[in-house]
Request: fold
Amino acid sequence: FRHVRVEAMAHDGAPMKKRKRERSASNQYQGTTVESTGPVIEERGEKRPEADTFFRKYVAERTPVVLRKCVPDDAFRANQWNLPRLKEKAGEVDVRVELRTAGKERGFGEGNFIHTNLAALVDQLAAGEQKWYMTTQDAGENDEGRPALLGPPLNALREDFPLRPELLRTLVPSTLNVWMGSSTTGTSSGLHHDQHDNLYCLLQGRKEFKLFSPNNAIVMPTYGDVVHIHPNGRINYAGCPTRADGATLDADEQWKAACKQRKAEEELADAEKALEQGKEGAEQRLAEAEQNLESLLDEALDQEAFSAGTDEEGDGTEIHTAKEPEHFCDRNSESIDLPYLHCTLHPGDMLYLPAGWFHEVYSSNPHRSADTAEASYHMAFNYWFHPPDTKEFHHPYESTYWEEEWTERCVSGVVQPDCTATV
Reply:
């Protein structure tokens, strides 16, 4: 496994030192740990594992696994993508591309970003350009403020993949992404962890992973201050408490309040319509609807003020304010003296990686052959899911919040019930 040095630099150019943690962290992690360095478990076979079996063996136990030559769903056709196809189907879509500095070994997120269209990126990769890299995109929000599931260019390629793949069909997706770049010498993602379960599908090129268990989070050199590790590996940082499933602590209460408010708004609209139609008792109905909605809005404002006054500022906890993401580390995996798991993915392989597992990804592709016009590049597709906090396949979340939120997305038009994105 090769490495690219990823070192944080202070404003004066000196290496940035890890800031002393303000308090000890609580570690409740109950999943898989790594006792000695070795390979990631592999699943090989002609058939995709049954979803319930896969959940029981790997998801519930928080165990990474590589699936060789496997697709997450029979409807998954992203593995058929190539540069001409992408240019034809989504060439006009605007994307954000990272331009890496020439002559420097830099990690993910350390270059300059530009906005262009996918066709321009495809042309650069086809010409052998290795400084252009497309990473996570801003999916934005819909008119109701709900986060979109797909950002560009996936929103123009939505016919080529299901939103809830069969392999992990009971987990609720958070977002989906595609990654594209080229490097014959190799580039590093930097050492970090994600807050969601990751199903990573390699489409082109080669990816090498080193994985460290969430059980080691307290001693990992993260930019943020780790204060809590949930049983499922979800990691909380100072000032950002969440439940194990990633929702805010008051998510259920906020959801119920939002549902009540929505119903009150519908009743108000119906009452106004009844008044316009001259129906008996409409004036009384309208007055009651207005009073009910006003009361619910007052409660929402009170709750918002209470939440704003109960954050962790002022309790002795120093909130991390550096520009570096708090879930990234200030050094790469080569300098971490802990046992780890490792694997190499080739086109057609997938890696399931539970939330909280620290990883460094080394991306590369072979040199372009002189006897072929085929471009050389690396490309991957991934699903991020809200991390489950139970070991039950049919009910992976203790709360119904994420499933209800998904259903609401379907009703509001963010996604359709048949799991295809809307136009």
